[in-house]
Design goal:
322 residues, mainly beta, Neuraminidase, four-stranded antiparallel beta sheet, 2 helices
């Protein structure tokens, strides 16, 4: 009798446990779950007040079978690299020139005499006819070259893999490097959670570097001493959010910054002190959770965006209606 009672109790306990498991399983089906009280609501940040948008898209053109990895602007032409090609386009999309380059390009810089093409572990320099003038390796196995900028006879190379800026002469001699650390309490080094790391030189000869993990844009001397920075961390349109923004950077002739963000994709313009001046393109114009478009600018303040998700160049111009 005792055995039967014990068996019955065990069966009842097993039945209760089984019932709890089934109830929990059914209750956690995606179509039956309640709202997550801790979910981050971003919808409100996707909307941008129309009065804040000072640009409009005036033209765009698809790149067809050519998949671009990077873009820059130089004296009325757009230079793109991707696949195994360097392509020069007029700003209206007409092809002006092209030549073959090794595959794997990550960024590009153009000047009057040459093209500098970044690769994961180095830089290649070509003349305007496509002849290889030099290859600058030696950055190490961890190197991830993401951006290039030139000032006089120096080329600054952003190496996201090693979290540093490497300085070369235009002839390819390595002159030095710096990691964004300062001797004062504001020095914190470059924080780079993903391969989004930008360097730029403006028309005043100032060297600026994005510190994406800090949502900061920092000013350095030519030899890597921090001179100042501004920072803006916020989900609101005036700031930067996510792990590493701004993801792309360009500078206008007046010294203002054009920034591009990933996650909540948008393009904006800031003055040198970090005040947002205008929105160029709101999130509604891009793929949700898409890649940050690479941006470059011309003297007329047009913004050229390489939209990686759509494989097209998109042109934004200042609005004339306000």
């Amino acid at each position: 009798m005792k055995k039967r009672s014990l068996t019955a109790v065990i069966l009842v306990i097993l039945g209760v446990i089984l019932g709890v498991i089934i109830f929990d399983f059914l209750g956690n089906r995606p179509d039956r779950r309640g709202a997550n009280p801790y979910a981050l609501e971003v919808d409100e940040f996707l909307e941008v007040d129309e009065e804040l948008i000072g640009y409009r898209e005036t033209r765009n053109y698809a790149l067809g079978g050519f998949t671009a990895n990077a873009i820059c602007h130089h004296k009325g032409s757009l230079v793109l690299v991707g696949d195994s090609l360097l392509l020069v386009l007029g700003t209206d999309g007409t092809r002006e020139d092209y030549f073959n380059i090794p595959a794997g390009s990550t960024c590009v810089l153009a000047d009057d005499d040459a093209y500098y093409v970044g690769y994961q572990a180095g830089v290649m320099k070509f003349d305007r006819a496509g002849k290889l003038l030099g290859s600058w390796p030696g950055l190490g196995e961890r190197a991830v070259v993401t951006s290039l900028a030139r000032k006089d006879d120096r080329v600054f190379v952003a190496d996201a893999g090693n979290r540093r800026i490497v300085i070369f002469s235009t002839g390819g001699e390595m002159l030095g490097e710096f990691e964004g650390k300062a001797v004062t309490e504001v020095g914190h080094g470059f924080i780079i959670p993903s391969p989004n790391f930008e360097v730029a030189v403006n028309s005043y000869g100032e060297l600026w570097v994005v510190n994406p993990g800090k949502h900061a844009i920092e000013n350095y001397s030519d030899d890597g001493r921090m001179r100042g920075f501004w920072q803006s961390s916020s989900m609101k349109v005036e700031g930067f959010s996510g792990c590493c923004n701004p993801a792309e950077l360009a500078v206008m002739e007046d010294g203002s910054f054009v920034t591009s963000e990933k996650g909540v994709v948008r393009i904006k313009i800031y003055d040198q002190s970090g005040k947002m001046l205008t929105v160029v393109a709101p999130p509604a114009l891009f793929k949700e959770e898409g890649k940050a478009p690479e941006v470059c600018v011309d003297a007329e303040k047009r913004v050229y965006a390489l939209d990686f998700d759509r494989n097209m160049v998109r042109i934004f111009e200042p609005r004339q209606d306000g």
